[in-house]
Amino acid sequence: MKSKVCHTPLLVAFASVIACSSLHTVVAAGGSGGLASSSAAPIYRFWSPVTGKHFYTMAEAEKDKLINQYSHIWTYEGIAYYAYAQASERGLAAVYRFWSDTLAGHFYTIRESERDKLINEYAHVWSYEGPAFYAYANGQQPASCDAIHRFWSDNLSGHFYTISEAEKDKIINNYSSVWTYEGIAWYALPPDSVAPDPQSSDLAWYSLGGESLVGAGERLTITRQYNVYAAAVGPDFTIQYRLSPNSTWGDEDDVILTPDESIATASDKTVGGHIGTVSVTVPGSASPGLYYLMANLDNGGAVGESEENNNAVMTVNQLTVTTLQSVDLGWWLNLVYGPSQVGAGGMLDITLYYSVHTAPVGPDFTIQCRLSSDTLWSDDDVVLTPDQTITLAADKTIGQHTRSFHVTVPRETQPGMYFLLANLDNDGTVNEFNETNNVESTTMRLTVTDPVVPDLSWHDLSFGPTSVARGGTLHITRSYYVFYQAVGTDFTIQYRLSLDQMWSDNDVILAPDETISTTDGKTMGRHTGRFDVTVPSTTAPGIYYLLALLDNGAMVAETSEKNNDRFTLGRLTVNQ
Fold first, then answer.
1. Spatial distance between the Cα atoms of 40 and 88, rounded to a whole number of angstroms
2. Could you tell me if 474 and 565 lie in one domain?
């Protein structure tokens, strides 16, 4: 199996470099902040809407500098978890921090082998910054610790780390096209394990978000997460939501959204994080304009808290309220695409997240995608085909919509770096009250190379049942891509069982190999199919990963030979 110690460096948009360079200025000035305390200390988490990346630090000076001087780039998200500044407890090991000018981001690892490989083989990409903090390696953790999960994104050229099982599951289930799960990075103390006052509860915000545009009199969908610290809350309490043209709660110009959210069930008052989605109404009398979304925990003061000054929160970005009732198309998430490098004549996978506001769309409309040397829609752009035509009524209702599809990069496209752009209602068939928000651009660029030979790559691999007897049949469902151009020769896929995720001579080979011989299986695009294999009767009982290798006989000359292997996250039990 290929190692993911160091991912292929990608160039990023200039704005991203500026954003992350401002962060690195903080790092360079103060290192990792000077590790001194022997007790558990918070690891602070930041997110940048400019780069789409997260940053984690134990250093109070780093945290304060980002909050005070770089709040236009970095959004403080609170305490991610607790770790240690020294190896003061048995089983603790250093978590090492690296900085990359090329990728404009940080990387963290507890593995010394990974640290040494980056230092010895990738010093031109990664600069070693030393131990960031101390945590527990897998197998060394006490019962009070939770796993820190690690993800990698080819699109964002960076890693993401989370202790939240809910966040991990949401990314795996809903955003697998953006994030690849890499397993457990290390173990640390959860954010609710160290509280400011062990004698009383404390309510505090973790995150708040909402739609970017809403009409007066319409429903507004809000996503929020609050934390309960120290002890479970006894009484019921309410959360009030408001719109405010400024950052002050309680002004006369606040717009109160109804109804208040009532927190009455015991499960929503336990110690820990609580994620939810709320629908509130914007009054029909609300004046058009830009507003911050604000929220106040325990608005009626029913809960006696150890800290009463952390109950109010507001969003960093403003939303637009309009009184016009004609339809408007807009975007609710950034464009997602893959792969990050494609040959002229090759195919791109694109996922669009568009929204319909104020009224359903009547006529059909098209979405066109282009490649551009800048972020402006112009005649110099490279048009990707085909356009996407939105015809179904369900795709034109008020709300948020997602659409995934393939487009082809013209074979005559010049090699270079391009932004991906998309234009809602490219033909102008929809009469909108705002025609200026239809074009969306990625913040990072993709690379177009000269026309190349084909490339085989995995999309998905799964199996059933989850338990099988020796000599039994295993049903495999697989999905692979053919990029750049069609494959000219037949090739095989070999399936194996492995005790680890490494392709080796110790694996159990499943028979027969799958032969791809039809033209339909070798054209450009995604190919999904089902194949049955037999588990050898000599297989030792145990728990195995399923592995697969595209072009096992190396019959296809490919752009990259490093992306042909795949393993499942779930494991198969082989019985007697």
1. 9
2. yes
Residue 369 · residue 437 · CB < 8 Å: no
Q: Are 186 and 135 in contact (CB under 8 A)?
A: yes
Q: What is the pLDDT of residues 503-536, one digit of tens each?
A: 999 999 999 999 999 999 999 899 999 999 999 9
Whether the link from the prior residue into 386 is cis, omega within 30° of 0, is yes
Q: Are residues 352 and 414 in the same domain?
A: yes
Which residue, of 188, 210, 239, is where some domain finishes? 188
* Residues making up the chain, counted from first to last: 576
User: Are 276 and 373 in the same domain?
Assistant: no
Beta bridge partners of 296: 240, 312
For 362, the token pair is: 């009547």
Same domain, 92 and 222: no
Residue type, 469: A
> Does 348 share its domain with 376?
yes
SS3 at position 118: helix
Please indicate, yes or no, whether the overall pTM of this predicted structure exceeds 0.90. no
In which domain, by residue range, is 535 found?
455-575
Q: Which pair of tokens denotes residue 427?
A: 């033909």
44 plus 146 within the same structural domain: yes
Single-letter amino acid code for the residue at 274: H
Residues in Cβ contact with 360 at an 8 Å cutoff, skipping those fewer than 6 apart: 327, 393, 396, 397, 398
